[in-house]
Sequence to fold (286 residues):
Amino acid sequence: MRESYLHVKDKKIWYSVYGEAMPGIPLLVIHGGPGFLSMPEVVSDLSEDRPVYFYDQYGCGNSERAENPLEYSAAYYVEELAEVRAALGLDTVILMGFSWGTALACLYAIKHGCGGIRGLVLCGPFLSTALWDTDQRANIALMPLVVKEAIVEGESKGDYGDSYQAAMMEYYRRHVCRLEPWPDSLQKAFSQLNPEVYTSLWGPSEFTITGALRSLDLVPRLGEIPAPVLLVCGDQDEADPRTVKKYQLAFPDAKMAVIPGASHLHHMERPDLYKLIVQDFLKELP
Fold:
């Protein structure tokens, strides 16, 4: 692994690359959040036959942070992605997004076109806030009464304190990561999440959406992305498989895989199956 910094829009943006000398089409990984950071575990194994690049978005992980949180926006991150790709010299590339990163990949492809993009891998896809919210409400309805009541009370009062946080973690253990306990790397990553980015763009939790992305809906424009697409989710994912199927049908050329016994971080929960699914898709790309 090699890591360094790029100067993107006069900001220091961290990146790393695995398998830099390998001959396959490079993979550029776009992390989730918003406000999260790169997690190379499992995905870096794909570097056995191709370079795999990670970068931390502005305000995230090892990258520079803004003095003014208003600098964080979807539009900014789209242009950042364009400049990161150019700076890394990835004329031919496969984009891999996780959660919010799937929306960012699609926003980029819609605005800048798919020239040189040989394919997209969208994991735990978030492509419509309205559909996401519907799925989370359905999940919450199946939670224990004490959890539901804590969420309702927290949202109604705007009080996201201890009771709400406890309910949130119970939800996350079912639909974000079902491993028990959570791996140290995941706990560390959550502790490093930038709340300024997450709250301003999204909200206080995965299911309470108050930020700037609350009106995002890419479904009507997914038909503008001609590149081959693989959508992957877990059967207990926040990204409900029935919604992911709607996304699949909206793309001109898309395949879909559902990983059993897994949730949003399905690549960490079922790594061997996840890698097999992704590698089969990558082998088929022209």
In short: The chain has a mean pLDDT of 97. Strands lie at 2-8, 11-18, 27-30, 52-55, 93-98, 117-123, 229-234, 254-259. The CA atoms of residues 66 and 102 lie 23 Å apart.
